[in-house]
Amino acid sequence: MAVKIITPVTLMKKVKDRMSKSEPIKEMEKTKKRTSRRSFFSLLWIGLGIVALMEFIGVVSAFLMPRKKRGNAGNLGSIIDAGSVDKFPKESVTAFIRGKFYLCRLEDGGFLAVSRKCTHLGCTVPWSEKEKKFVCPCHASAFDIRGAVISPPAPRALDVYHVYIENNMVKVDTGKRVKRGGFRTDQVVYPKKA
Ligand code: FES
């Protein structure tokens, strides 16, 4: 049997051959890794895109959905049960913070629900019990208990909400704010006489 003698030169040649054969394999592995990393990031971006899209759709549809007409008392856009007629003394103003209005009972016993938003630039107008008027803290417009302008710059009376009385209970529909130039007696709602 012939013995194959391996010289240093043939040994180097063999090593070189091996190395040159393993290079493409390494390259392929690298490419594979790169490709899988790339596809992972692509999937991640697609996932994030879908989440963002869903959120956008949710926000848009919530904005476009009609407001509930009847629902939780106290929310704007719903019917608010203010309470029984007797709960409100004549010449009184009761704030309904969540409904964003004041329920005013006039001296003749009639009810009016006025918006707390100033008709000048929209500041919230507080009622001054001492002065018996609404005074805007922004530019000092003043309104009487009926929401009519006493002092400018407010250009018109405070807006009103529809009031109705059912079974001696006062209810306010905050679904629609009604603009008005000034006060008119037909804006006042009276309880039925017993
Ligand atoms: S916002 Fe009320 S007076 Fe200007």
Give a concise summary.
This protein is of the alpha+beta class and 194 residues long. The protein contains one helix and ten strands.
**Ligands, ions, cofactors:** FE2/S2 (inorganic) cluster
Calculate Rg over CA atoms: 38 Å
Secondary-structure element order, N to C: HEEEEEEEEEE
Range of strand content: 15-25%
Overall description:
The chain has 194 residues and is of the alpha+beta class. It folds into two domains: 1-65; 79-187, Rieske [2Fe-2S] iron-sulphur domain (Rieske Iron-sulfur Protein), CATH 2.102.10.10. 29% of the residues lie in helices and 25% in strands. The chain is built from one helix and ten strands. It has one helix at 8-64; strands at residues 79-84, 92-96, 101-105, 111-115, 127-128, 133-135, 142-143, 149-151, 160-166, 169-178. The strands form two sheets. It has a six-stranded antiparallel β-sheet, with no helix packed on it. Strands 5-6-7-8 form a four-stranded antiparallel β-sheet, with no helix packed on it. β6 and β7 form a beta hairpin. The longest helix has 57 residues, at 8-64. The protein is rod-shaped, with a radius of gyration of 38 Å. The N and C termini lie far apart (132 Å). Bound molecules: FE2/S2 (inorganic) cluster. Residues 118, 120-121, 123, 136, 138-139, 141, 153-154 line the site of FE2/S2 (inorganic) cluster (FES).
SSE topology sketch:
Blueprint: H1 8-64, E1 79-84, E2 92-96, E3 101-105, E4 111-115, E5 127-128, E6 133-135, E7 142-143, E8 149-151, E9 160-166, E10 169-178
Antiparallel strand pairs: 1-10, 2-3, 3-4, 4-9, 5-6, 6-7, 7-8, 9-10
The structure holds FE2/S2 (inorganic) cluster (FES).
